[in-house]
Amino acid sequence: MNYKHKALSALLAATMVFSLAGCGSASSAAPASSAAASTPASSAAAPASSSVAESDLSDAALQAIAKIKEKGVLTISTESKYAPFCFKDNDLNIVGFEPTLMQYLADDLGVKLNIQDVDFTAVIPAVTSGEADIGMAGMVKTAERAEVVDFTQPYHMSGQCVMVLKDNAATFTSFDSFAGKTLGAQKGTLQETILHEQFPDSNAKILDKVPDLVQLLQLGEIDGLIIAVDPAGPYLASHEELATVDPGIVVDPETNGQVACVAKGNEGLVEYLNAVFAKLSADGTLDGWYADAVTLSNEQNAA
Fold first, then answer.
1. Residue 251, Cβ density class (10 Å: 0-12 exposed, 13-18 middle, ≥19 buried)
2. Which pLDDT score is estimated for 266?
3. Is a pLDDT exceeding 50 seen at residue 140?
4. In the chain, N or C terminus with fewer CB closer than 10 Å?
5. Which tens digit of pLDDT belongs to each residue from 95-104?
6. Where is the Solute-binding protein family 3/N-terminal domain positioned along the sequence (predicted)?
7. Model's pTM, two decimal places?
8. Structural domains of the chain, with CATH
């Protein structure tokens, strides 16, 4: 188990102790809507054993998962353009680290999985409107988002960097070196916040999709792209002209891990998800799934 997931296991275990000591009642998860585009999961690992004992869950958690079981389907909203977390393979199946985790959750609950593939900015609205039970899209917790949804503990930890053309990497060593330059970031993300707050002297280019921003970088229309370290990896593996630099980006540890979101007040579902994440982190399953997703993404980019 690597250092990131050792720390993650400890964090999740501590959360489990706290949540089992007392948890508020869960709110109802509204039925999934067919209004948003949805795609069935392609393949994922089924639980090798029962995940979380019901005796370890509060009444609120049991009620929350019972409502999903009654519907017979778990609807999760995501964005499929964020490898290795969630992306499409060459046959257009939605695959990656998060879809594998999604399928595990559905199998653990004994229900079908419905993946809603939407733009990133539509993930939280899908949850707040009741169209999705869970949002899972390489998302991090922010104070603004926490006003409208509840978050789990992280199921993955990731740093932040700036992707640049390799030929220019040596010139970008500090925040000042990006002054007057144009930096890109995906709309509605932590990276957009970082751009505005930590690069005030840079010009901002905000788009909905990361691949479009990468293309602008390759064309020289922007000078850098603020991106999490993990999704930067597949681009570096398949495009030798790209590199990443760290000018000293500062991120609050409380908001620097990938989390799932649920409807505000659904503390029972948060408790259940935290329990599953803690188990999968402790036994190394999350490490394995993430490594598999990175391998698949790299192989696909090399093909």
1. middle
2. 98
3. yes
4. C
5. 999 999 999 9
6. 73-293
7. 0.72
8. 3-157+257-302 (3.40.190.10), 160-250 (3.40.190.10)
